[in-house]
């Protein structure tokens, strides 16, 4: 069986993901389940695994209990598994998941570190820490359901709204979403900015693969791939990784963007994000990078001390799984360059820059909301660092009233990024 036939065979394992020509030839997805029943996927780009001459370890040796099994409480009563709960804030309409299980998650980074083992690392034979999530002793990229999720779908749950204290002011529902982890590389000391473009191309494929599959789950309204990086951001595991949250509601920031986009469309007939990109290209001064498929710019009303938005050139794209092969390769190149320039943004005087704390947030069109047609795929990248030794902390205006005050100007941010390399980055 050749590589294309292998790719076609594994395509049959998924209902919604459509791999392009490159993925069919050069990326192999191998699904398995961890010992507690969570889904796990290897995404291999190493030729020996893509060809099938080598195979991955599929059995998780840990004696974890089935996460959906009933338990017995201290009083001897049988307790059925329960999804995390969420409550709606009557003042804002926002749903707030109550993620109590996250209190037990392992922490390996920062002053609150709680374990010496890295659950995202490949299994190390003979290592005393054997509670890692990856069954094999090596991998390229892996994706799996979070062991300590903020949201979870429990089979058989009846999705219904109840009321706290019987008062209709306070709605409560199951947080019937899904949380996944994406590990970018087996090297736990690697930085995402240091990864080769070929590996980041596999990460892009993972985002596309999961966006397609997760969007088809019952009850999912928004699929949100993102990366938190750096202790200052609050990252608890230093391994190069990101996450994908699949919300059973439209999150507040997306709700605000959808509202603005819809109002703009009704007033002008245009697409707000498309027109913003066109206006930035025409203005030129805040464009910081571009290649065949993507444009990166500092938005004219940037909030953060370092903020860059990345948008596809092609119109009509709502989600990562809609990207073609060229767009996925160009995205890997753009993302790599963006991370490298982010690390060089603040100069400590030695010319080496720093490991920038950042959040990279993929804004995709909502799954079912009718306003999705007037939206457009975009990446919003930002850092809380405002100087070499200073962070931006949200003060009373930002935290109390969500009224932002910027510490700089978008033009200064763009000028600094333009100093760090050419705008045109065609490979």
TrEMBL record:
GO terms for molecular function: UDP-glucose:hexose-1-phosphate uridylyltransferase activity; zinc ion binding. Residues 259-420 form the Galactose-1-phosphate uridyl transferase C-terminal domain. One of its GO terms (biological process) is galactose catabolic process via UDP-galactose, Leloir pathway. Its cofactor is Zn(2+). InterPro entries: GalP_UDPtransf1, GalP_Utransf_C, GalP_Utransf_N, HIT-like_sf. GO terms for cellular component: cytoplasm. Belongs to the galactose-1-phosphate uridylyltransferase type 1 family. This is Galactose-1-phosphate uridylyltransferase. It comes from Bombiscardovia coagulans. The lineage of its organism: Bacteria, Bacillati, Actinomycetota, Actinomycetes, Bifidobacteriales.
């Amino acid at each position: 069986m050749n590589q294309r036939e292998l790719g076609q065979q594994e395509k049959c394992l998924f209902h919604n993901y459509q791999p392009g020509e490159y993925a069919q030839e050069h990326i192999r997805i191998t699904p398995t389940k961890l010992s507690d029943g969570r889904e796990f996927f290897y995404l291999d780009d190493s030729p020996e695994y893509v060809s099938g001459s080598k195979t991955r370890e599929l059995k998780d040796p840990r004696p974890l209990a089935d996460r959906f099994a009933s338990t017995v409480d201290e009083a001897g009563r049988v307790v059925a598994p329960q999804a995390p709960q969420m409550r709606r804030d009557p003042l804002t309409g926002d749903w707030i998941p109550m993620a109590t299980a996250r209190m037990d998650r392992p922490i390996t980074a920062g002053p609150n570190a709680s374990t010496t083992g890295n659950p995202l690392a490949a299994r190390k034979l003979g290592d005393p820490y054997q509670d890692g999530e990856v069954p094999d002793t090596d991998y390229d990229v892996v994706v799996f359901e979070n062991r300590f999720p903020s949201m979870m779908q429990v089979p058989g749950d009846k999705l219904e709204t109840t009321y706290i204290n019987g008062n209709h002011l306070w709605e409560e529902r199951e947080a019937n979403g899904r949380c996944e982890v994406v590990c970018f590389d087996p090297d736990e000391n690697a930085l995402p900015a240091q990864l080769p473009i070929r590996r980041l191309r596999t990460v892009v494929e993972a985002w596309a693969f999961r966006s397609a599959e997760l969007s088809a789950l019952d009850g999912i309204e928004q699929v949100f791939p993102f990366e938190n990086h750096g202790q200052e951001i609050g990252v608890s595991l230093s391994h190069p990784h990101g996450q994908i949250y699949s919300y059973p509601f439209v999150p507040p920031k997306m709700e605000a963007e959808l509202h603005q986009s819809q109002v703009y469309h009704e007033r002008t007939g245009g697409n707000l994000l498309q027109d913003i990109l066109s206006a930035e290209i025409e203005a030129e001064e805040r464009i910081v990078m571009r290649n065949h498929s993507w444009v990166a710019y500092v938005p004219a009303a940037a909030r953060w001390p370092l903020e860059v938005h990345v948008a596809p050139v092609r119109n009509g794209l709502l989600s990562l799984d809609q990207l073609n092969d060229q767009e996925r390769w160009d995205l890997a190149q753009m993302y790599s360059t963006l991370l490298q320039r982010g690390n060089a943004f603040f100069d400590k005087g030695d010319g080496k820059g720093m490991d920038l704390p950042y959040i990279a947030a993929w804004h995709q069109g909502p799954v079912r909301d009718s306003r999705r047609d007037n939206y457009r795929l975009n990446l919003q990248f930002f850092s809380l660092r405002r100087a070499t030794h200073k962070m931006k902390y949200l003060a009373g205006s930002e935290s109390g009233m969500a009224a932002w005050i910027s510490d700089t100007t978008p033009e200064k941010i763009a000028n600094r990024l333009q100093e760090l390399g050419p705008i045109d980055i065609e490979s």
